[in-house]
């Protein structure tokens, strides 16, 4: 299906550009400090405290850091699933077994990603997660998330819906990325909570 001409896209593109420009000005010290704070806030979430399986991701570049959180979840005995990008932009999944289990993979001309090097569990593995941590660039006061535009997590959310799975959906962001309004399209779905270095904000829909 063509995405050209969808009403929300031009606004989304300009908002992505502005948000990425702010992220790209962050220093290494900024990234270290926010990563530690983000992990601390996320670990306080009841949805993560009671989760047996969490689908997460390895942050890259200037994204809010997830490494400390991944290791803390694993130390708790949580089964952490990490994505593997497929050629069609869908996601397969593998289990995180510590930093040594990650492989640096470059997909075409994009930024290299860190992916689990072990067994592939299939795209449907995410439906067993009790919580799904989503990357993003912004979230608004209704819980509508702005992604990077690749569509991978739109597929994940559609797969969860088809399976009748209802994990907690949590987006990890910087404080300035909680905004008044994100342009939305018919397929967009709200998240349940956003975690930033300064705290947690929940949204109104049922979890």
UniProtKB/TrEMBL annotation:
Biological source species: Streptomyces coeruleorubidus
Keyword set includes Nucleus: no
Keywords of this entry: ATP-binding, Ligase, Magnesium, Metal-binding, Nucleotide-binding
Family that this chain belongs to: Belongs to the 5-formyltetrahydrofolate cyclo-ligase family.
Gene Ontology MF, one: 5-formyltetrahydrofolate cyclo-ligase activity
Cofactor: Mg(2+)
InterPro entries documented for this protein: FTHF_cligase, FTHF_cligase-like_sf, NagB/RpiA_transferase-like
EC nos: 6.3.3.2
Enzyme class: ligase
PANTHER family in UniProt: 5-FORMYLTETRAHYDROFOLATE CYCLO-LIGASE, ATPASE INHIBITOR/5-FORMYLTETRAHYDROFOLATE CYCLO-LIGASE
Name of this chain's protein: 5-formyltetrahydrofolate cyclo-ligase
Catalysed reaction equations from the record: (6S)-5-formyl-5,6,7,8-tetrahydrofolate + ATP = (6R)-5,10-methenyltetrahydrofolate + ADP + phosphate
Any Pfam family hit: 5-FTHF_cyc-lig
